[in-house]
Amino acid sequence: MARRALNRRAFLQLVGAGAGAAMLAACVPVTTPAPAEPTQPPEELPEAGATPTMAEVAVATPAGAAAEAAELTGELEIFSWWTSGGEVEALQALYDILAAQHPAITINNAALAGGQGQGGNMKALLETRMLGGQPPDSFQVHLGRELIDGHVIAGRMEPLDELYASEGWTEVFQPDVIEIASYEGHPWSVPVNIHRSNCLWYRPSRLETVGVTEPPATWDEFFEVAQKLKEKDIPAMAIGEQGGAGGFSGHILENILVSVLEPEAYRGLFDGTTPWDHEGVTKSLEIMNQIYDYANPDFPSTSWGDINDRFVADDGPAMMLMGDWTRGVLQSKGFADYHWTVAPGTQGLFMVLSDSFGLPKNAPHRDNAIAFLKVCGSREGQDAFNPIKVSISARTDADRTKYDEYLQEAMDDFANNEGVPSIQHGAAVKQSFLLDYDIALADLAANRDVEKCRGMLVEAAKVAEIMK
Predict the structure, then answer these.
(1) pTM to 2 decimal places
(2) What is the pLDDT of residues 307-325, one digit of tens each?
(3) How far lies 19's CA from each of 11, 67, 145, 186, in Å?
(4) What CATH class is the domain 199-345+430-463?
(5) Distance CA 212, CA 224 (A)
(6) Which CATH architecture describes the domain 21-35+53-61+73-194+355-403?
(7) What is the C-alpha to C-alpha distance for residues 274 and 276, in angstroms, rounded to an integer?
(8) Nearest to residue 356, comparing CAs of 157, 104, 84, 72?
């Protein structure tokens, strides 16, 4: 696959100072332990109650144990927030592969809906479980700062160097993707996909109502079209802000920010080189504030989870700025009156996020969790999961024949566009800042006060130590 010229530098900047820059060296292959006499002297064994590292497991496993280890039994508890159309079926595709390989494993799909479409409810329960020393066997998490700042730095996860090496992932995952997954030179989760945040979904029939045949390419063009639509009582932009969570607006704003600031200054928001009181941030907030004038009037009472139903309704909005998982949801509803382009002003850019799964320390069914992670990172697993989820493989050897028109376009764009990290979906910032970011955007949606919102973002950046 062709590489985009600025891609590696861009991604190295986005993951922050903690991300490991060294490529992973080949290590001892991972095998699942079976009862046997240890090859180490007793005094070198891990102390009672400690979770062995993957390297220790490999050393302690005698020859021939791999065949015995294939007969895995017991449970496997997986946390996720995938409960919508397309998501459920995609996750089940991974489970089906695991079940075929290890039929004696009982899979507990502990998916939990809610939380404004980003797993808020699941993340809250996960935090409680992790802090209490009772983790699930694995859990869905956004690749990058969300996991690193949330659980890796706190010492709650196992590094996956040996698993990456044994499965050959250092050869087939994009190097830039490995960089996002890494902290202090170690990868911490397995990316199951690549999603794109900067997608504008539009209904051609709604645009044609006001004589528009092409979607807007700039924000100035957007507001010209939006005014024409408003005169026909057609909302221009679908927004769901029920509960005052700010997440939907946060998703839109990250795309406005990169279009106004451009990539280098946008990345600077996360390392302190671009202050959050920059004039480009103010202009972006003014655009966001103006968009509310052209949104569905019921946006304060419409949830993230219900916005797709609002979009496909007969009186629904003409456009929606949302990630490419939207295509899977629309397909699951049998809706066909839509097409896609990039968010206004983001031509040539790929706003990146990725779902992944990691290995918590003290996972109750660790061997089963490792088997699941192997499926997640496999070509078979990714080519089964991603066409349903409407995302692209994190691997460079995906079978393109399994992917539809949109996804093949996304593959080409990911290979050739400049990558920039998503704020709203965990690639660019720590979770604590994201929570404050969403609170600030919720305040903007409710009070329409740009100056107040900017002040809240500046304070959040100072607290998170990403602004000097």
Answers:
(1) 0.80
(2) 999 999 999 999 999 999 8
(3) 10, 36, 9, 9
(4) alpha beta
(5) 10
(6) 3-Layer(aba) Sandwich (3.40)
(7) 7
(8) 157
